[in-house]
Design goal:
There is one protein chain. By secondary structure, the chain is an alpha+beta fold. A hairpin with a 4-residue loop joins strand 1 and strand 2.
Length: 274
């Protein structure tokens, strides 16, 4: 018999009620990074908590909030040291649990929960089972978590985990795009100088700082990507470099620049190529 997914099982147990209708309304009106503060407000209202934090593990020593609710009002996000906080205990408890059980914590029967009379904390796990985020709620009064509330929290945890993974992936892609653009700009600047020097017969003095070696694949992530891209264009243009149908125009380069870059990247037409 096929197993029911955790989120559908949680929905079935929670049933159709005001909490789920409120959750649906929050999800409908909140997208992207706005989901985190919306869920912080929602959980604070449902649990009658004085404070709710939804955040991510920034590094081994720090955490960063993504949504904060205090006394029913949203608050600005901030970064804080994990040492000595309940969030540190939550992350450490999950690491200990994973080591002892021999399985990623996200495969357990229920979401890992660290609870006390006026506090609860829930870890959010990435695809590899590592803790990437958390949900914490605190109140001066007791915070009894009912079975019904636990089911709703399971649903919220799935939503938050998915959105956090997307957020982190977008950050990584943006960082890589910035590095590629920076390296491309440096390459273009160096090659323009080298081409101009070769055309005038002058010797080009070394540029200030550490030059980029196009033959060093570890120093530049562009070497392989750029070589393959140029080869695809050359094959598509039947190795015609100049003219309106040439590879140089399609690549946005001058023919002399393209030839210079081909030489640097070790690109040469084989005899058997058409």
């Amino acid at each position: 018999m096929a197993q029911r997914s955790p989120i559908l099982g949680a929905m079935a147990e929670a049933g159709s009620n005001n909490d789920l209708r409120g959750l649906a309304a929050r999800i409908t009106t909140s997208q992207g990074a706005g989901l985190f503060p919306a869920m912080a407000q929602y959980l604070a209202s449902m649990l009658h908590a004085d404070e709710v934090l939804i955040g991510e593990v920034a590094d081994e020593l720090h955490a960063r909030t993504l949504g904060v609710s205090q006394q029913g009002a949203p608050q600005p996000n901030y970064t804080f040291p994990l040492a000595g906080t309940p969030c540190e205990a939550l992350v450490r408890e999950e690491a200990h649990r994973e080591e002892n059980d021999g399985q990623p914590a996200h495969e357990a029967d229920a979401p890992p929960l660290v609870a006390d009379s006026g506090y609860f904390g829930l870890a959010l796990h990435g695809a590899d089972g590592r803790v990437i985020g958390f949900v914490c709620a605190r109140s001066d009064a007791a915070l009894p978590i009912t079975e019904h509330q636990h089911c709703v929290i399971e649903i919220v945890a799935v939503l938050l985990t998915t959105e956090l993974q997307l957020l982190r992936a977008e950050r990584e892609r943006a960082s890589l795009d910035t590095q590629v653009q920076r390296l491309k700009s440096q390459l273009d600047s160096i090659e323009r100088g080298e081409v101009a020097a070769a055309a005038s017969g002058r010797h080009l003095a070394p540029a200030a700082g550490t030059p980029i070696d196009l033959d060093d694949t570890e120093a530049t992530g562009l070497h392989h990507v750029q070589r393959e891209h140029i080869l695809r264009v050359l094959n598509a243009t039947r190795w015609v470099i100049e003219g309106n149908s040439g590879a140089a125009l399609k690549l946005g380069m001058k023919p002399a620049t393209l030839r210079h870059r081909m030489k640097k990247l070790g690109i040469a037409r084989l005899r058997h190529q058409p």
